Amino acid sequence: MGWKIYINDQLIDEAEAKVSVFDHGLLYGDGVFEGIRVYNRKIFELEAHMKRLYDSAHAIRLKIPQNIDELTKNVEMTVKANDITDGYIRLVVTRGVGNLGINPKLCQEPQIIIIAASIQLYPKELYEKGLKVVSAATMRVPPMSLMTQVKSLNYLNNILAKMEALDYDAMEAIMYNDQGFVAEASADNVFVIQNNKLSTPPISAGALNGITRGVIIKIARENGYEVAEENLTRYDLYTADEIFLTGTGAELIGAIEVDGRKIGLGEPGPITKKLKKIFETYVRN
Ligand code: PMP
Questions:
Q1: Would you say 237 and 243 are in contact if contact means Cβ atoms under 8 Å apart?
Q2: pLDDT digit string (tens) for 149-174?
């Protein structure tokens, strides 16, 4: 038996849950989404994810055909129907079925899809050992092209960066903006630690306003660490004491090598490990 998928206003067996080949989410990547964690049967930061989803939709002029309370209830219902204790939700809203042109106004009704399942983004041992990252030649899209806060279905740019990383036997790619400042990783936010101080690129550098990023900033400050949102260069990465990445899928994972330069002692550093522990406790409470 597979997962029960929410689509067309009902729960359907995974094998039967299908979208039209004319859906503009498929044809043009026209749509928005969220990835959300479930810990201990509770949906983590659901409100923040819902807000980001509706903001993304508003920014691309996509009218979600349910209000935020209705959609929240349907997310909760899908998690229950799949009996998820610890898992991952993929909430997708596409522009819906249209014709073969890009005109979104000719699309009928936006399509809502909710998948509640499981995820293991990186192999378990990488959380102990840390991962290798490389600087991608593929640039993060400039905000005058696609607003970088929009979590859209258009991930080709990030996928190209990810492929560069995989070519060099690395699991993640660092993406830079058109000014040469660090924006984020292909699917995670980036934090650098230097002299006990945490820094992360500002949202204006092209980072997605990561929910995990926000939680880490909050708990780091609560635990006495200084956290700055400031521009970072490749040099700041190469000379960092510690680096870690954050994301809903990735959670918090140390990066131990950037472009062949060892970071710190070449293993996740003490602050990374400490914050990871605090984060793990936080999400379960
Ligand atoms: N940046 C990108 C490009 C992402 O796709 C994601 C989500 N995987 C993140 C950052 C992290 O965001 P969040 O913590 O909200 O998952």
A1: yes
A2: 999 999 999 999 999 999 999 999 99
Tokens at 183, concatenated:
């924006």
Cα torsion angle, 15, 28, 152, 208, sign: positive
Q: How far is the CA of 206 from the centre of ligand 1 (A)?
A: 12
- pLDDT exceeds cutoff 90 at 23: yes
Domain parsing of the chain, residue ranges? 4-117, 124-284
Structure confidence at residue 1 as a pLDDT band (50, 70, 90): low
Which single residue is written with the structure tokens 């406790």? 281
β-pairing, 87-94 vs 261-262, is unpaired
Question: How far is the centre of ligand 1, averaged over its atoms, from the C-alpha of 32 (Å)?
Answer: 13
Task: Give residue 84's pLDDT.
Answer: 96
Residue in this structure with the two tokens 């609560």, named with its chain if needed: 222
Residue 105, pLDDT > 80, answer: yes
pLDDT at 285: 86
CA angle 106, 107, 111 (to 5 degrees): 170
Examine the residue annotation and report whether 151 is marked as an active-site residue of this protein: yes
Per the DSSP assignment, residues forming a β-bridge with 266 are none
Kindly report, residue by residue over 222-233, the tens digit of the pLDDT: 999 999 999 999
Instruction: Give which of 139, 132, 140 is closest to 166, Cα–Cα.
Output: 132
DSSP state of 101: S
Q: Quick one: CATH architecture of 124-284?
A: Alpha-Beta Barrel (3.20)
H or E stretch covering 27: helix 24-28
Quick one: fold of 4-117? D-amino Acid Aminotransferase; Chain A, domain 1 (3.30.470)
Q: Kindly give the number of the ligand 1 atom that is closest to the alpha carbon of 249.
A: 8
